[in-house]
Amino acid sequence: MEPRAEEVPRKTKILQALEDQNTSVSFEDPLENDMILNMGPQHPATHGVLRLLLRLDGETVIGCVPEIGYLHRGYEKLAENCTYHEFIPHTDRLDYLSPMNNNTAYAIAVEKLLDIEAPIRAQYIRVLISELARISSHLMFLGSLAMDVGALTVWMWAFREREKQYDLFENIAGARFTTSYTRIGGLAQDVSSETLAMVKKFIDELPGHIVECEKLLNTNRIFLERTDGIGIVTREQAIDLGLTGPGLRACGVGHDLRQANPYLVYSNLDFDVPVYEGGDALARYYVRMAEMRESVKIIHQVLEKMPAGEVSAFKPKKVLPRKERVYTKMEELIHDFMLVNFGVAPPVGEIYSAVEAPKGELGFYIYSSGEGYPWRMKIRSPSFVNLQSLPTMIIGCMISDVVAIIGSLDPVMGEADK
Amino acid sequence: MNAVIIDKLKARFGEQNIEASEFRGELTIVVPKDRIVEICRFLKDDPDLEFDFLIDLCGIDMNTPVKRFGVIYNLYSLTSKYRLRLKTFTEEQEPKVPTVTGVWGTANWHERESFDMFGIVFEGHPDLRRVYMPEDFEHYPLRKDFPLMGIPGSIPLPKNK
Questions:
Q1: Which residue in A142, A305, A365, B11 is a FRET match for A294, CA 20 to 30 A apart?
Q2: Residue ranges per structural domain of chain A
């Protein structure tokens, strides 16, 4: 293969962007103190393959250009070549720390396009798994933020709890990480009462373990000094940059889709949306800790209120039939053949459907041309949009604060790079 | 609410420029591309509408001879908790749309992504670079004429020694 001739302009293009970026600090530099530091993509504190180009004046960051795309797998292109059912396993690989949320978000989006609804028991189970996944994601946040600022014990404790959750997910979906649990119009299978008892035991014990972690951090001088007043983003900046999720709620905006535009059965459940002022790393930590408690509260109510019944809607031409019926009934065999080979064909139209994922608003925009494959599917991933606010938070901070800020933003590159 | 939005836009920008449709309760408004910035600013600043959040911006390839590429703006209002979708189209030759980064800062990366994937050029964008693909990549992967398995040789691999 020919050697690339554009090697030189390529390098300068990135640097050019760094220099063009309008920063509040002057670039006039008679002593030539500025230094360009390349952080990532292989760096333990960047939570995946995130690359930051930092412009430093001494230890102060005066310019920051994030570079993403190292994990780009082209899921939007793949989606255009998959039937709606076939795409479900791919949603696991978006935010791989809370695959259940992605499964749920995708199923709700396609159901909206098809104009069907999952049975009420399935909706309660979806809330249950979404909240379990939220706790799982926030525990990961807790562990990694604490480790980024030097507290290793919290990481171990958070992962001990996550390990218990993976056992729950294995019992619920049959897989620990890549769950692929929801189906269009329902769920893959019902949850047994033994599993529900395990969930009950887990959430009864969890608040105690959260308190244990908080005892290590909340009054810890090192932790507070590393996070308090670090990475500030104001309310106006956050809205302008499209920040959603805990990052937005840490700026004093009480926006949570579970209450603003309730989906599933969230309107039947009683919970609060924690809001903190400050917009710094510490506030983002407080919001997530409070959210874990709210999730526990929601799961308690779900366990009480969950009715018995079917977990798949009865829409033979749209929802995959149960396997045992496919093997024994002619009608179901035909429907299964049609759904698997040609896909469910929604009418021509477009929808946008979003849920409150642990990191923010996870949305699916689907344009259907009436065929078995979506014509266009756009994944509005919260991490991608949240990462955009990184320069605003980082500029003016010290180089050692960069890891704390990335940790407090909690991006997942699988989702940001799609 | 849908009727209010349509009426306001029609009164302000003229009947012929606003083409509204509804599907599953979601309002989609197709607008001409040369007025998109004006319309976005109006939707953001009007005290009754206040679409202060640009949730998502994405491109679409309709694969038609005219108006091949589209840009879709999903808006959200924090006050009324209401959603609205704007759409605008551009031609295959010179796919250019004015940027809305001046209205919502978040449009920056979204527009870079649409440029990367469809080759839609956002005029006036402060930093229009590719966001996912390598900078020297010559194709636009989400266009319908780009094959699913990629184009062999389009990404140079390291040489075997």
A1: A365
A2: 75-417
Cβ contact (<8 Å) for A253 and B159?
no
What is the value of pTM for the model shown? Answer: 0.88
Domain membership of residue B129 (yes or no) is: no
CA B71, chain centre distance (Å): 3
Rounded to two decimals, the ipTM of the complex is 0.90
By Cβ distance, the residue of A10, A115, A417 closest to B132 is A417
Q: Classify residue B83: in a domain, yes or no.
A: yes
User: Which of B21, B23, B115 is the best residue to mutate to test the A interface, defined by the most A CB atoms within 10 Å of its own CB?
Assistant: B23
pLDDT in tens, A321-333: 888 888 888 888 9
Residue B50 exposed, middle or buried by CB count within 10 Å (0-12, 13-18, 19+):
middle
> Is A385's CB within 8 Å of B106's CB?
yes
CATH of domain A75-417: 1.10.645.10
Is B133 among the domain residues?
A: no
